[in-house]
Design a protein that fits this description.
Shape: elongated
CATH topology of the largest domain: Beta Polymerase, domain 2
Strand content: 5-15%
Number of helices: 14
CATH architecture of the largest domain: 2-Layer Sandwich
Largest sheet: 6 strands, parallel
Pathway: Porphyrin-containing compound metabolism; protoporphyrin-IX biosynthesis; 5-aminolevulinate from L-glutamyl-tRNA(Glu): step 1/2
Structural class: alpha/beta
Helix content: 40-55%
Order of helices and strands: EHHEEHEHHHHEHEHEHEEEHHHH
Subunit structure: Homodimer.
Number of domains: 3
Keywords: NADP, Oxidoreductase, Porphyrin biosynthesis
Number of strands: 10
Radius of gyration: 30 Å
Function: Catalyzes the NADPH-dependent reduction of glutamyl-tRNA(Glu) to glutamate 1-semialdehyde (GSA).
CATH superfamily of the largest domain: Glutamyl-tRNA reductase, N-terminal domain
Enzyme class: oxidoreductase
Distance between the termini: 27 Å
Strand order of the largest sheet: 7-6-5-8-9-10
Length: 443
């Protein structure tokens, strides 16, 4: 077994799928999914992440076809356009884009970085990640995500109407230890709930016509949260300091009677048409709508768009480095296996040759060195051309040649993992004979 592999991935996300389709793709929890994937023959690593916005899984295997088959088997029963499959290079780039926030509903949002890290730790706990190429890809993605936020303005200021609503609320009332109510659990309600989750509010209630969807949004929040049906909306407004409404209903949901006993409350209406009756509740209730958010969103949108272009350039550079590292590892594994195989043959033949020569009289140390040197020279010259070919194959993405070389020269390839003390270098490849690595570095 080697410490590199080919990655394949599958995704059902907000980019192509509805909330219901994403939910249908999450039939089991991430840990169970990873455990199932890693138990499949030929799969070396597995990782899965499930949030309100996405359900994604990745595997790494020595054989690209094995990896691809594993993720194809995960495709949920949703329409074809809702599912996206990634090959190795697409997986590497997509994971970096996800970590940087470029694939999020809110461009550059911070929550996804922690979610990726938590999902990676969960995968490690069940044996899904073991320091191989998928583990490396996730580590690189996390580094890119941190760099994107540290070196650009990708996460500064509000961008969506949901996050703009929360920013407007912070300008008008003190959100520290406040109670918030989100009316609607669709895309806009989800964004508002997540923006509130990053604010100082102490409790978030999500109300929706279908309580199950509200529960799904509430479960994704770190702040204390609860879910309820719209039938209980009046009671919820009594305890809310800020209400953000985003249902998309044809008629207003928050009316005079809804906030009759609410007291001092800020209502922010994101609905089109209106979700909140203008001037609902009288003087104690302040109502704001989308027009009030324009000054909050315009500047932030321009700033984040410029930052996104910088992050794209950052990902391009990191992707090229990661891909070159992957190719180098694959070539080095194949070359090491080839030299290890040649070394075993050389040592066997040397022992037999020395025994035959010494049958006619004991050899001097100088004679032994001449014979051993001849054997080393033959191995080096015979393997020089294949070494060059293997590295060229890796550079040209000719993984079939690499795979064939591993099968020919590595007796443990596609077999059980090497035991402690077996002939392996620290990075997982086989040790080349003395002097070989020096010669290779000169070629």
């Amino acid at each position: 077994m080697i410490d590199t592999g080919v990655i394949a991935g599958v995704s059902v996300s907000h980019a192509n799928a509805s909330v219901e389709e994403i939910e249908s793709a999450q039939t089991v929890d991430s840990e169970t999914l990873v455990s199932d994937l890693i138990s499949r023959e030929g799969i070396e690593e597995a990782f899965a992440i499930q949030t309100c916005n996405r359900a994604e899984a990745y595997v790494a295997a020595d054989d690209a076809a094995v990896a691809r088959t594993a993720v194809e088997a995960l495709s949920p029963d949703v329409r074809e356009g809702a599912i996206v499959q990634f090959d190795h290079e697409e997986s590497l780039r997509h994971l970096m884009r996800v970590a940087a926030g470029l694939e999020s509903l809110v461009l550059g949002e911070d929550q996804i970085l922690g979610q990726l890290q938590d999902a990676a730790e969960a995968a490690r706990e069940v044996g899904g990640l073991s320091g191989g190429v998928l583990d490396d890809a996730l580590s690189k993605a996390h580094q890119v995500g941190k760099r994107a936020r540290a070196e650009t303005a990708i996460n500064e200021g509000s961008l969506s109407l949901g996050s703009a609503a929360v920013e407007l609320a912070t300008r008008e009332i003190d959100l520290a230890d406040a109670s918030a109510l989100v009316v609607g659990a669709g895309e806009m309600g989800l964004l508002a709930a997540r923006a509130l989750d990053a604010s100082p509010v102490s409790r978030i209630v999500v109300a929706n016509r279908t309580q199950r969807t509200a529960e799904h949004v509430a479960a994704d929040l770190d702040t204390e949260s609860a879910a309820l049906r719209l039938d209980d909306l009046s009671a919820a407004t009594e305890r809310a300091d800020v209400v953000i409404a985003a249902t998309g209903a044809a008629d207003p949901i928050v009316r005079d009677e809804t906030v009759a006993d609410a007291g001092e409350t800020l209502c922010i209406d994101l609905g089109q048409p209106h979700d909140v009756v203008p001037d609902a509740g009288g003087a104690d209730v302040a109502v704001r709508d989308i027009d009030d958010l324009e000054t909050v969103t315009d500047e932030a949108r321009e700033r984040r768009s410029a930052a996104a272009r910088a992050v794209e350039d950052m990902i391009d550079a990191e992707f090229d480095r990661l891909l070159e590292e992957f190719k180098r590892k694959r070539a080095d594994d194949a070359v090491s296996a080839m030299y290890e195989s040649a070394e075993r043959t050389k040592q066997r033949e040397l022992r037999e040759a020395m025994a035959k020569l010494e049958a006619n009289g004991e050899l001097t140390d100088e004679q032994r060195e001449v014979v051993a040197g001849l054997a080393d020279a033959l191995v080096g010259q015979l393997l020089a051309a294949p070494t060059k070919s293997l590295r060229e194959a890796a550079a040209e993405d000719d993984w079939a040649t690499i795979h064939t070389a591993m099968q020919l020269f590595d007796p443990e390839f596609d077999g059980p993992p090497p035991t402690p003390g077996s002939a392996r270098s620290p990075d997982g490849g086989a040790d080349a004979p003395d002097g070989v690595l020096e010669r290779l570095s000169e070629e």
